[in-house]
UniProtKB/TrEMBL annotation:
Residues 15-54 form the EGF-like domain. This is EGF-like domain-containing protein. One of its GO terms (molecular function) is calcium ion binding. It comes from the Eukaryota.
Length: 141
């Protein structure tokens, strides 16, 4: 039977430990199971064909717990919540935007230090770029 070796008594079999017999079966960790083996990845990763670990993009999948005024930034094996606080006179607009608040502008139109001018941008947009790459994962994280 595959994954087993016949004992010297020619009647019973013993499990082969593929993990110790074959190096690099798995990118992260190999676990011997009766008749076979299983590859596992650390938290924040999923197993792919060939025993490779692929980062789970919690931000793209929407499985993060970032507050409303934060942007989710994917990291290898994790994610980070980055606050996007709007400057004075701006209000939150969507997940990663701040838009000039017209009511605030009208209220402060006579205050020379705070008034809205044509020189102020209408919107701020916060963007982050994730650059995923195949990388080796250390056996101890």
């Amino acid at each position: 039977k595959e994954g087993y070796r016949l004992n010297s008594d020619k009647q019973t079999c013993r499990d082969l430990d593929e993990c110790s017999m074959i190096s690099n079966l798995c990118q992260y960790r190999c676990i011997n199971i009766p008749g076979s083996y299983k590859c596992v990845c650390p938290s924040g990763f999923t197993i792919e064909r060939g025993g490779h670990c692929q980062d789970i993009d919690e931000c793209h999948l929407g499985i993060h717990n970032c507050p409303v005024n934060n942007i989710c930034v994917n990291l290898q094996g994790a994610f980070r919540c980055h606050p996007t606080n709007c400057p004075k006179g701006y209000e939150k607009f969507g997940n990663n935007r701040c838009q000039l608040n017209a009511r605030w502008c009208q209220k402060h139109q006579n205050d020379t230090n705070l008034r809205c001018t044509v020189h102020k941008p209408v919107k701020y947009i916060y963007s982050f770029i994730s650059l995923p790459a195949r990388m080796n994962i250390p056996t101890e994280i």
